[in-house]
Design a protein that fits this description.
The complex is a heterodimer of chains A (about 400) and B (about 900). Chain A contains seven helices and 21 strands. Chain A is α+β, with helices and mostly antiparallel strands and about 400 residues long. Helix content of chain A is about 15%, strand content about 40%. The longest helix of chain A has 19 residues. In chain A, a hairpin with a 4-residue loop joins strand 16 and strand 17. The two termini of chain A are about 45 Å apart. Chain B is an alpha+beta fold. Chain B is about 50% helix and about 10% strand. Chain B starts with 13 loop residues before the first helix and ends with a helix. The chains are: A alpha+beta (about 400), B alpha+beta (about 900). At the A-B interface, strand 2, helix 2, helix 3, helix 4 and strand 5 of A face helix 2, helix 4, helix 6, helix 8 and helix 11 of B.
Chain lengths: ~400, ~900
């Protein structure tokens, strides 16, 4: 599928992209910026699809990349997922969306709130209604929000139940070395909101310990001055789901690692190797660690693994050579362990490098940084909303070198 | 009910079918048909045949249908311009619709139809829309101006749309402002002339800053990018802009963040570097950059490329953040390689231990490219951080023990570099290296190993055997290896001549007789002759001490770096090349960092066109002439004893030294003979008192000469005009490679030989140089006549200046005219060609005047005494053959002398008068 915003570019320009694609083994490894004799191909890779922008002139590549991300997010938002078949099924809406989002290379309307007013997202009900009444899903009126001071919020929002939910999600990115000491750890946090409030509510959210933040970035709705002065998030929220802020807690502060892994792996034995891994919680303030999954990309010469887990299930994919151990919940009384032998291809060269373990886990009701929301106040509207805050800690890019 | 059904119709009479559907009466059916058409269009099928039918659907109240038709029109209007005209009326009508959405849509679509004929009709509606009451329409119209500019730039300028756009910069709606800025900056970009269409002043900047806080993220990027092109008047303005931009660093959109970083990096140059603000800003810049690294890999990549620049410019910003650049095993390869690069740049004594253990970890990864780069990185660390060298070497040794082939090879290549940086320090490991000799199969690794063996031949007992083993397959080796092998064996021979004679002969004959490669053959012959004629000299040449290699060889050139800093966040920053190097059709508009200006008030333009990059000479003509001249004249004298300081680029300096040493003999002798002639001349000229030489004047100040100060004058000795220089080096570095070029001038002055400055001119040193000139060069009339424009080149730059040649140096020795001829000539020259001057306050009698003038080739033909006045009649001839006849009236007791002169070319008269005055006054 192609759409042109300036002069028409021939499809053949994509050949350069395909050529790059052939050169690499891993679909993610395609360089984001490719120069061709006349154009620049800026691409992103999402859900097994490449989104490629073709530019003729000097542009900020981040600008294009961010825009492409926004396109994908919008599709996600409209069609609840973004896959090849979904795009094919909805190409007219997709085309209309693209047309609304960009004009002559300048982004036009990229806020999903505004877009939804221009082009109604397809639902089965509406499609049927449209066929019956002959109406279309394109609005004939100008979206009010587009030019107001709060372009992110549509007007005339009405709910019977007024609710505001905040999810404080923290992802721990870490590299742990062989000996178990932390090489590098930082927290990527974000606050996702689901806000269903009528009218034009003006919210302010304060924290118990706002000094924690190293770096923050906000949704445009947040009043930056107020934050600078009082460390309070004050904003008129967009309607629906959005990311209020994301923050970064890193290098300067100590990050607690909520999980430990003891491991022992060797390939040296004749006819195979041995592996022995134990996982346990630490510093979790009594919360349980859930959804623990360990992923180990084994060296190419490994044929199979015969293991014995004390809990959970394991699988080894002989094609990708990835060993996955789905541990599940960790019960403090008995720490999960997996051990067994590894079959190595006979005659293969000695394996010198040990693999890394990629760990996934979730801890509910805990923000590992210790961040706590103090209170949420609402001004501007009369009703009393229902408020909720949820904390989750997850593993981000959490790697353990064996 | 999904749209995928539109893709399924691939039967034959499809077009026909669609045609009938498009002409259907039912609205619903029409719309479905248009959707099908669009579907075919998006997958690249040609549905242009349906053009008239689709256009017919345009007049509808249904917005969706209208949009779809517009989409179709944009795509095919170009191939059907005549048909597109049919649609124009609808567009014009839609531009006056009551619904602002339709007005905007119409003006938007019209701009997208790239057909010349349509643009004519576009102007009126566009003008109206630019003033529309609805901001949505105004902002769409602003973009449309940029579209129109792309199609027909002249039209936009003629119709005054630029001014309208300028007005929009102060619109009340921030979105309109942002779009106007975006449109303007795009037009600036494509503008052929390279000049700015609209100059920014502090007032517009203020408006932009206000709009910045309120417009969308994309608008913010446009505004920030145009702010980056503005050069603030002074510190205070820069400071206040920085303050207002800083909050943008906390934006969720990475593009906004990076654009803000660009503006801040640029303006920091203007602020005093020791101010508190700069240090807080430095602290504030780090977190957002780090945060960029936790977003999607594509964003990371662009961020890393930019961080690479920032780290080179201001290492302080990220020196604490080493850890964020540690590589995760599932990072895409393009991110890994960039991170590694930055890790090395940030490596310092404080964090080297961490870095090394990380690098060692990477060296055991699976990805070959990455592992290689990691091994190289270890070597670079050793060279960069001296204290860590030992640890790096032991790490490398550990890696060699792994026996992984490509790791070993890479390690040997970097160990060679370490040896070159720290000679005679780590030779103990050579034996370990030698164990791996057999596994090396890459040319670079083999060449490195051979180099090591040759360099340390005296410490390796079986060096001859090792080298001999390489020699067996000499013919099949890569050139690089062959050259190294040749050199290594010659080194070995010089160190252990007794038992290696056979070996060296073997390699020399292989190189000179059995090879087709000219490089190899030449090097072979050079060695051969050296060895056969003067082994001691050979030893000195081959075993000479080598310059140490420098720390970081891959740093960007400072000027390029500064230019790239101005392009942070753009494509240029990703490629690390100036945009002019790869973006097509860009005018030579290059950005440069603003210079810090201590004298407040005057500002330096941030945008300098390339042609003015050098010191700007005063006259226009000079630029053209001097720029086109060849300044690459080889340095004429070269002193091997004072070799150039260790240069980064070994190859280039090698070539240069080769070249210059080749040329060495010739100019040196010519210089000697020249000076001896001068000497003889001097001896002979003792009896005749020397002619008048004006005192030396400053021609080039040290300020404009980047430390080179030139004073000088002109003299005439033995019939030769000499340009007398005094070069003073007031810079911190030595200067070499002097050359001179004279612009075309009135008397055709041109250097007789190249400028001979004994190299190098050391800092604080000075040197007198005399350059003989001839008058056989190209002639061009100058104003004033005796003005001479000069270009001097040295290793630092090219400098231009102009000086005045005193007229008397042009007076030739055979300027004595026959008495009768003088009389007849005097009569022949018409009266209007007579000029009269008064030379005041000269206390000379006629005798002295005659004597002084004769010394300067002005000859007295006759002397009369009329009524107590002395009348002198003198003649002189200029180098270009012009005769000048003079009459001097000298009254005893009167300090004023009256000079009347007659010549066919009156232009020279003022110069003659000045010469008289100068000579007589001397």
């Amino acid at each position: 599928m192609e759409k042109h915003w300036k002069s028409v570019v021939s499809r053949s320009v994509c050949d350069y992209f395909f050529e790059q694609q052939r050169k690499i083994n891993n679909p993610e490894d395609i360089p984001p910026v490719i120069a061709t004799p006349h154009y620049y191909l800026i691409s992103i890779y999402r859900s097994n699809m490449y989104f490629v922008a073709v530019c003729m002139t000097e542009v900020p590549p981040l600008f294009v990349i961010e825009f492409l991300h926004r396109v994908v997010e919008t599709f996600d938002d409209y069609f609840s997922e973004c896959t090849e078949s979904i795009i094919k099924e909805n190409y007219v809406v997709v085309y209309e969306l693209l047309d609304e989002m960009l004009d002559n290379g300048f982004p036009l309307a990229t806020e999903s709130n505004v877009l939804k007013e221009l082009i109604k997202p397809p639902t089965i009900l509406r499609t049927i209604a449209n066929t019956v009444t002959g109406k279309s899903n394109v609005s004939a009126t100008l979206p009010t929000g587009q030019l107001s001071n709060v372009p992110w919020r549509r007007t005339g929002v009405k709910y019977t139940n007024n609710e505001a939910y905040f999810d404080v999600v923290e992802e721990v990115d870490a590299i742990i070395d062989k000996a178990g000491s932390t090489v590098f750890a930082e927290i990527q946090g974000y606050i996702d909101c689901c806000i269903k409030l009528s009218g034009m509510p003006d919210l302010s959210l304060s924290f118990m310990n706002p000094r924690l933040f190293d770096d923050v970035s906000f949704h445009p709705c947040v009043r930056f001055k107020r934050w600078e002065a009082e460390r309070i998030l004050s904003f008129i929220p967009p309607d629906g789901n959005f990311r209020l802020m994301s923050y970064h807690i890193g290098s300067q502060s100590v990050v607690g690692i909520p999980i430990y892994i003891r491991h022992n792996i060797s390939f040296k034995d004749i006819g195979g190797g041995r592996v022995d891994i134990t996982v346990g919680p630490r510093q979790t303030v009594g919360r349980t660690v859930e959804n623990v999954v360990l992923e180990i990309p084994m060296p190419k010469s490994v044929l199979n693994c015969i293991l014995n887990p004390s809990q959970g299930k394991y699988s080894f994919d002989p094609v990708t050579k990835i060993l996955v151990w789905d541990v599940g919940r960790i019960d403090i009384s008995k720490v999960p362990n997996i051990r067994g032998t590894i079959n190595v291809q006979a005659g293969a060269p000695l394996i010198e490098s040990n693999p890394s373990i990629n760990v996934k886990f979730t801890i509910n009701q805990l923000a590992v940084s210790g961040l706590k929301v103090n209170r949420l106040d609402m001004y501007g509207e009369k009703y009393k909303p229902f408020k909720g805050v949820k904390y989750i800690t997850k593993a981000g890019k959490f790697q353990i070198r064996m | 009910m999904t749209d995928s059904k539109y893709f399924t119709t691939t039967k034959k009479g499809e077009i026909f079918e669609l045609k009938s559907e498009l002409n259907s009466e039912k609205k619903e059916k029409k719309r479905e048909a248009v959707k099908k058409v669009i579907a075919s269009m998006t997958v690249g099928k040609d549905v242009s045949a349906l053009f008239p039918d689709v256009v017919n659907c345009m007049q509808t109240d249904n917005l969706e249908l209208k949009k779809l038709v517009y989409l179709y029109l944009m795509n095919y209007a170009k191939s059907h311009p005549d048909m597109a005209i049919m649609a124009v009326n609808t567009f014009v009508k839609d531009c006056e619709d009551t619904n602002p959405l339709i007005r905007a849509l119409a003006v938007r679509t019209m701009g997208c139809i790239r057909v010349d004929k349509i643009t004519e009709y576009l102007c009126e509606p566009l003008r109206k829309c630019l003033k529309d009451e609805d901001p949505y329409v105004r902002k769409t119209a602003a973009v449309c101006v940029a579209k129109l500019y792309d199609i027909n730039a002249q039209l936009v300028e003629d119709q005054g749309f630029l001014d309208q756009l300028k007005d929009l910069l102060s619109d009340s709606n921030p979105m309109v402002v942002a779009n106007a800025v975006a449109a303007l900056s795009e037009m600036n970009e494509t503008n052929i002339s390279g000049s700015m269409l609209i100059e920014m002043n502090s007032q517009t900047i203020n408006k932009l800053l206000t709009a910045l806080n309120e417009c969308t993220e994309w608008g913010q990027v446009f505004i920030l990018d145009s702010l980056a092109n503005y050069s603030p008047k002074d510190d205070r303005e820069a400071l206040s802009i920085c303050e207002r931009i800083t909050p943008r660093l906390a934006h969720a959109n990475a593009a906004v963040v990076l654009s803000a970083v660009k503006v801040l990096m640029k303006f920091m140059e203007i602020l005093p570097s020791d101010s508190d603000f700069v240090s807080t800003l430095t602290k504030k810049l780090a977190p957002p950059l780090v945060t960029l690294l936790s977003s999607e890999p594509e964003v990371q990549y662009v961020a890393l490329r930019n961080i690479n620049l920032i780290v080179q410019k201001r290492p302080d910003i990220l020196k604490q953040e080493m850890k964020v650049f540690f590589v995760k095993y599932n990072d895409p390869i393009y991110v890994k390689l960039e991170k590694l690069d930055i890790m090395i740049r940030l490596a310092s004594q404080a964090n080297i231990a961490q870095v090394l253990s990380e690098l060692k970890e990477y060296a055991t990864e699976v990805d070959v490219d990455f592992v290689r780069k990691a091994v190289r990185a270890i070597g670079r660390c050793a060279i960069k951080v001296e204290q860590s060298a030992e640890r790096c070497v032991s790490t490398l040794l550990d890696l060699i023990q792994t026996k992984v082939n490509y790791v070993v090879q890479e390690a040997i290549v970097v160990i060679k570099d370490i040896f070159r940086k720290y000679p005679n320090k780590y030779e103990s490991i050579i034996s370990t290296l030698c164990e791996n000799l057999d596994t090396l199969d890459e040319p670079e690794a083999r060449a490195s190993m051979i180099w090591i063996i040759g360099e340390y031949a005296e410490r390796i007992d079986n060096a001859d055997e090792l080298l001999e083993s390489f020699l067996e397959g000499f013919q099949d080796e890569n050139t690089q290896v062959q050259l190294q092998l040749l050199t290594a064996i010659v080194k070995l021979f010089l160190k252990r001549p007794s038992d290696t004679q056979q070996l060296v002969q073997q390699v020399l004959s292989l190189a000179t007789q059995d090879s087709d490669n000219p490089d190899l053959r030449d090097r072979g012959f050079i060695y051969w002759r050296l060895l056969s004629t003067d082994p001691a000299a050979a030893k000195e040449v081959v075993l000479a001490e080598k310059p140490l290699i420098s720390e970081e060889t891959d740093l960007l050139e400072p000027t390029l770096l500064d230019e790239l800093i101005c392009h942070i966040s753009s494509l240029a920053s990703v490629y690390h090349k100036p945009p002019s190097a790869f973006v097509e059709g860009r005018p030579g508009l290059r950005k440069s960092l603003p210079a810090r200006n201590d004298i407040g008030g005057s500002s330096i333009p941030a945008v300098v066109t390339t042609s003015q990059a050098a010191v700007i000479p005063s006259q226009e003509s000079l630029i053209g002439d001097l720029l086109s001249m060849d300044l690459s004249a080889p340095p004429t004298t070269y002193n091997p004893a004072t070799a150039p300081s260790p240069s980064v680029d070994l190859l280039a300096s090698g070539i240069e030294s080769l070249l210059t040493s080749d040329l060495n003999s010739v100019p040196a002798t010519s210089a000697a003979s020249q000076s001896s002639i001068g000497l003889i001349g001097d001896i002979f000229s003792v009896p005749t008192p020397s002619s008048y030489v004006p005192p030396k004047q400053i021609w080039l100040t040290a300020e404009s000469g980047k430390g080179l100060e030139i004073t000088g004058t002109f003299s005439r000795k033995n019939g030769i005009i000499n340009m007398e220089f005094l070069f003073k080096n007031k810079a911190m570095q030595p200067m070499i490679g002097f050359a001179i070029q004279l612009n075309k001038n009135s008397f055709g002055l041109t250097p007789q030989r190249p400028l001979q400055v004994v190299n190098p001119l050391i800092p604080g040193g000075s040197q007198e140089v005399s350059l003989p000139l001839s008058t056989t060069g190209a002639v061009q009339r100058m104003e004033p006549l005796t003005s001479l424009q000069v270009a001097i080149k040295n290793s630092i730059d090219v400098f231009y200046f102009a000086c005045i040649v005193p007229m008397n140096v042009f007076f030739v020795e055979d300027g004595q005219m026959d008495k009768r001829l003088f009389l007849s000539t005097w009569k022949d020259i018409p009266a209007q060609n007579e000029m009269q001057y008064t030379i005041q306050n000269i206390l000379c009698n006629a005798e002295v005047v005659v004597q002084k003038m004769t010394q300067n080739n002005v000859f007295t033909i006759a002397k009369r005494n009329v009524e107590g006045q002395d009348m002198l009649y003198q003649s002189l001839k200029l180098t270009n053959g012009i005769w000048v006849l003079n009459e001097l009236k000298i009254q005893p007791g009167n300090p004023n002398i009256t000079l009347s002169l007659k010549t066919q070319a009156l232009d020279v008269a003022p110069g003659i008068y000045q010469a008289y005055e100068a000579i007589l006054r001397n």
